Amino acid sequence: MPIGQDISFCQRFAFEVSISAFPSLRPSTNVLHGDPRIPEAGARTMASKEAVVCALIVRAREPFVVKFFPTEASLQMDAPAAAGAAAHEDLATTLPAPLRRLLVDGAPPSTVPTEALRAALRLDDSSAGSGAPGSSLRSLRMLKMLQGLPPEAPTAAVDPPLLTLPGALDARACAALRAAVDASLEGGGGGERGEGAAELAELRDHLLARSFSSSLTLDRDGLERIAGAAAVAALWRLPAAVARAAAAVGAAPAAEEPLGGGRGFEGDVEVIVRRYVPGARPWVPFHYDRAACTVNVALSDDEAHGGGVLLAYTAARGAWAVGRREGDGTAHGPCLLHAVTRVTAGARYSLVLFFGPRRGGAGGGG
To answer: Is the pTM of this model over 0.85?
Structure first.
């Protein structure tokens, strides 16, 4: 949600404001003016240039509640990370039992009945043939509204494909990317696009997932310096492969024009190196991405940390764990539901690339 934007939808839902993690902030610097329980009159964000806004959905049922955490740009990651972890804990208590078992408790997907999971996700009949959430999935509808996107979910006539990419990056590149995000976070850096820009850009794509200083944002040149030009060129060719796979199974129409030349995809690309730890950004709910193609490369073995398992869902298969070793990747379009289970020990690292906007959707990838 851009700073200064009218919160016109506040008339329909209850909101909470919390600045308890930031006692140095004066009440006048609160993100929202007026009573913490926002009245029906529209409110505007009042964040100053010293503040960055992060909204985390902390209630998955009606009334829909959002906590806003204002942060001073000079704050180190400890306080925001603690606030993000607390918000995730709040959300965990309200999740339906099947989702809580999968995401928070780390239960194997085979132990959660598919019908119970479908009911928990509130997938309606109109989306039965796709992996996309239906119009009755209110939490994701409101998430898209908060992102400034149409509330309708992307749909496909059949289950969308998930491509697996063994050895997408070698061990040297994975280690270098882990070291880069560690150095950035420990040094308080925010990537290469200016203070606060990475936080707000990622907020548009994964509002539920954001826990402040848990990622490093790069551009293609920066990624090539770390991972090598050949490996990056291979990643940039994946959107075309995903489009071909989707067209082959009837999940999407054939592309009308080539998706890039020798260097691969030529549109906007968001490149994010993420670190998940138990105390900050511990898990990610089921969601779909608004990017035309998402590429996710594991920078650490699944066995190197507790939890942090990538899950995928389709109507035909239900939910399953996507096991990966260091350097293995996945690629998919915007119609695949996916999630990450709670990290219980160690650190989980991943490289995520969002390629361009969803066809027919609003906005870009960041």
So the answer is: no
